[in-house]
Write a structure and sequence with these properties.
201 residues; alpha+beta; disordered N terminus
Length: 201
């Protein structure tokens, strides 16, 4: 699946997590993503639309007991509701240093999800956590649709929420910056799961 943003913004897509990489930085705001408006839909290239339906992968991960009802529908709106919930739970996971929050929303093949989960594990191991939210969404748009898989564009901002230790001392503070993602979600066992996240920057 190609980048959602190549046609109009000439951005380079990377499959590593921007949030995890930038949380460790306390310097100036990196060059890169333009400021999203949150109101206008990003352009789509034909390569961003899946051409063959995927085979759903069964999972034994326990379902999130707080999984929203709106995200249980196999529709574009359901996929958008799930992606919004997933990004909200990045904040929960890192504020509480709890990797399970994301593990129960992610498929095993989602490498970026593993990076997010490993960040929470690292915080727990080192007695650290985010003091506040690290990310806020400004726009979520379902852009491609198959019977069991949907591509969703996500616009948002990384926030300068400091990482603090067990004594309350600031370990580092990430820079504020705009971020753009393309998430692929899969409908398995009557709910959506995160399959893949691309970060455009």
């Amino acid at each position: 699946m190609g980048s959602l943003f190549l046609r109009s913004r000439a951005l380079t897509v990377v499959t590593l997590t921007a949030l995890t990489a930038l949380v460790g930085c306390s310097g100036g705001d990196p060059e890169g993503a333009p400021t999203p408006t949150g109101t206008s839909r990003p352009p789509v290239t034909s390569s961003s639309v899946p051409t063959t339906p995927p085979t759903p992968t069964a999972t034994t991960t326990a379902v999130d007991p707080n999984y929203p009802a709106a995200a249980r529908k196999n529709t574009s709106k359901g996929a958008e509701a799930f992606v919004r919930y997933y990004f909200e739970n990045i904040n929960v996971s890192w504020r509480t240093a709890n990797p399970v929050v994301l593990e129960r929303l992610s498929l095993p093949e989602c490498k970026t999800c593993i990076n997010y989960i490993d960040t929470a594990k690292g915080y727990a191991k080192n007695g650290q956590h985010q003091r506040g939210d690290i990310f806020e969404t400004t726009g979520i748009f379902a852009e491609s649709r198959l019977p069991s898989e949907t591509g969703v564009a996500v616009l948002g901002r990384q926030l300068p929420s400091p990482v603090i230790d067990s004594a309350g001392a600031v370990v580092r503070t990430p820079a504020r910056r705009s971020l753009e993602f393309y998430a692929t979600v899969r409908f398995v066992d009557s709910i959506w799961w995160m399959k893949h996240i691309q970060v455009a920057k």
